[in-house]
Design brief:
The model has no long low-confidence stretch (mean pLDDT 92). The strands form two sheets. The chain has a five-stranded mixed beta sheet with strand order 3-2-1-4-9, sandwiched between helices. Strands 5, 6, 7, 8 and 10 form a five-stranded mixed beta sheet that branches. The protein starts with 7 loop residues before the first strand and ends with a helix. The protein is 45% helix and 19% strand. With 313 residues, the protein is an alpha/beta fold.
């Protein structure tokens, strides 16, 4: 495939982000490799988002829907897209200039890739750097150690377990063939927290090979009013529920995917139990961790439960 034949549709879900929407759109328009199209799906905004998008004229396709959540907006955009590859950007974040180009060059050489990711910069709203995505997780550190200095790092089926258990997958740096996204059914509509992880685990289960561009390709801004910061316990509870919902479906997945998901779920339950303990909610802490004893019985699970029991005591 030639470089010019790699077409990206960038889908931007938006809900009352008129203050940052122009910045997001401009970051896509400023790419070194031009997007095939930019689709803004407005999820029932009541602010000036429509006027902001209108300033860009025909360079942006603006579509309004009744408020249905970010997953529905992303899925709607994917259905409308005409590019061969999909990329996603939230309306309060930005792409860095090589976001599309770095992936396009790789796809031109290996058009049978199932997905691509890149590194991501986490920042405060004032642009204070917090951390990078890849070296903050076990799977990322393992890939970096095995491919020192490499810009393009292959991700094979042997890596999927680690990527699920403690990975760097971020929606802002995902590139995926549109046909594959639609075949997977898109993002789940009944999970508001962890919906991206839910999709990524299903994506890994259906994939053979992908890749990581070891360069920052996007910026994720951490806002004080986000669901994770406003009520971290509720967010963690919803996150665990999202992982639990994958259980039955993953019975048909490879062993590595199942083990990775169980490991992710174990850590999620343990974190939730400790959150409850810090609030003095002892019964809730025990209820959060107890399912480990029958879902994934092991010495490690027993140690996790024992640690919570000691905390209660």
């Amino acid at each position: 495939m030639s470089l010019q034949n790699t077409t990206f549709s960038v889908v931007i879900p938006n809900y009352n982000n008129g203050a940052t929407l122009a910045r997001a759109i401009e970051s896509v328009l400023g790419q070194t490799y031009a997007a095939h199209e930019i689709i803004v799906i407005d999820d029932g905004s009541t602010d000036d988002s429509a006027a902001v998008a209108a300033r860009f004229g025909e360079r942006v396709r603006y579509v309004r829907q009744q408020n249905a959540g970010v997953s529905a907006a992303r899925n709607h955009g994917a259905r409308l897209a005409t590019g061969d590859w999909l990329a996603f950007l939230d309306a309060d974040d930005i792409y860095l200039p090589e976001r599309l180009g770095a992936h396009a060059r790789w796809i031109a050489r290996e058009p049978d890739l199932d997905f691509l990711f890149g590194d991501q910069d986490y920042r405060e709203p004032d642009d204070t750097h917090l951390q990078m995505a890849v070296n903050a997780c076990a799977a990322g550190r393992s890939l970096l150690a095995r491919h020192p200095g490499a810009v393009e790092i292959p991700i094979t089926a042997a890596d999927f377990e680690d990527c699920v258990a403690d990975g760097f997958a971020e929606i802002r740096t995902l590139s995926i063939p549109r046909a594959s996204f639609l075949k997977l059914g898109g993002f789940p509509l009944n999970h508001k927290i962890g919906e991206d992880l839910y999709f990524f685990i299903r994506m890994y289960a259906a994939s053979r090979k992908g890749g990581l561009v070891n360069r920052p390709l996007a910026v994720y801004y951490i806002y004080p009013g986000s669901a994770l910061r406003k009520d971290p316990v509720a967010a963690q509870r919803a996150y665990v529920a999202t992982l639990e919902a994958l259980g039955e479906e993953l019975q048909q997945a490879g062993g590595g995917i199942r083990r990775g998901c169980l490991s992710k779920l174990r850590h999620g339950r343990l974190s939730l139990a400790y959150m409850y303990l810090r609030k003095g909610a002892r019964v809730a802490a025990l209820a959060a961790i107890a399912p480990l004893l029958w879902d994934s019985p092991s010495l490690r699970s027993l140690r996790d439960v024992a640690s919570i029991v000691r905390g209660i005591s």
